[in-house]
Design brief:
By secondary structure, this protein is an alpha/beta fold. The chain is 24% helix and 25% strand. The protein has 2 domains: 183 residues, FAD/NAD(P)-binding domain (3-Layer(bba) Sandwich), CATH 3.50.50; 119 residues, FAD/NAD(P)-binding domain. It has 7 helices and 19 strands.
């Protein structure tokens, strides 16, 4: 995503005299991440009158920049391309007065106030911080995933399922997420090929029974997807039985990878509380265990993982920040 006009330019530190346009580094609120949750938090914080910074990271827009048509975000009758939605959110943030810097946070210090967020070239301070760094779906590690991302390969059945009506599909995985995705996709697909590396599912018994009782789902045990083939969009997948080494080619319209997500929280290890899977633990609404540090979106949400819910969490975090900063001022007075 190209930087918008007015985006802050990085300043090289040297011994030259300070210029009047020296980069601003102290803010009321620092938001780390620029997906739907980060941008929404920025809109609300700026609109509430707080001097707000968003550190967008290297790829502003989060997962939606790799998404084609978005049909399920309210307000767009004829759908909208994922990157276009993120560009509009960014512009709305800037219109509200949010400072957006296209740089990546590499370290944080939440042990004392004001909180510090460091990039490779700058150190920023904030009276409050909102973590909105999101999560990334785990990949199979195939070259075809990159080639056909958004062209038949998907990581979200709820987002993309309706685009695959009356087609045969493959779901890779064997946990609750995979079974949930496969079951949901049977609403649209003629047949689901569920490919799992083991001889039994890891999903809960309730989810397993639901899948076993669904005539549209065919199971490929002890198998893995080893290749994705197509022209302008994917058309076939190659499966390999890991016990017999036998390979099978399936003509399908889409591949849904459901082998879990990785929250982008390595930066916050030993800074805020994380659960066993690396997701941020919320103590009260959007509060982390560090007073003044909040989280919004997929970085803590293991259940919904939708653009609209991420935006909702961004709104909630901004409202919680407003209450926190207002109370902080009242206590000082």
């Amino acid at each position: 995503m190209a930087a918008d006009e007015g985006a802050t330019t990085l300043v090289t530190k040297d011994d030259s005299p300070k210029m009047s346009n020296e980069k601003k580094t102290k803010f009321d609120v620092v938001i780390i991440g620029a997906g739907p949750s980060g941008y929404t938090a920025g809109i609300y914080c700026s609109r509430a009158g707080y001097d707000t910074l968003i550190l967008s990271g290297i790829l502003p827009g989060g997962q939606l920049v790799n998404t084609t048509e978005v049909e399920n975000y309210p307000g767009f009758e004829n759908a909208i391309m994922g990157p276009d939605l993120m560009i509009d959110m960014r512009k709305q943030c800037q219109k509200m007065g949010t400072t957006i810097v296209d740089d990546e946070a590499v370290d944080v210090d939440f042990r004392r106030k004001p909180f510090k967020v460091l990039t490779a070239t700058e150190e920023y301070e904030g009276r409050a911080v909102i973590i909105a760094t999101g999560a990334n779906p785990r990949k199979l590690g195939l070259e075809g995933e990159k080639t056909f991302a958004g062209k038949g390969v998907s990581y979200c059945a709820t987002c993309d399922g309706p685009f695959f009506r009356n087609q045969e599909l493959v779901v890779a995985g064997g946990g609750d997420s995979a079974i949930e995705e496969a079951t949901f996709l049977t609403k649209f697909a003629t047949k689901i090929h569920l490919v799992h590396r083991r001889s039994e599912l890891r999903a809960s018994k309730v989810m397993q029974e639901r899948a076993f009782n669904n005539e549209k789902i065919k199971f490929h045990w002890d198998s893995a997807v080893i290749d994705i083939i197509g022209d302008q969009k994917m058309q076939r997948v190659v499966l390999k039985n890991l016990k017999t080494n036998e390979e099978t080619t399936l003509d399908v319209g889409g591949l849904f990878v459901a082998i879990g997500h990785e929250p982008n929280t390595k930066l916050f290890k030993n800074q805020v509380e994380l659960d066993d899977h690396g997701y941020i633990v919320l103590k009260n609404k959007t509060h982390t265990n560090i007073k003044g540090v909040f989280a919004a979106g997929d970085v803590h949400d293991r259940t919904y993982r939708q653009a609209v819910t991420a935006a909702g969490f961004g709104c909630m975090a901004a409202i919680d920040v407003d209450k926190y900063l207002t109370e902080s001022v009242d206590k000082q007075e």
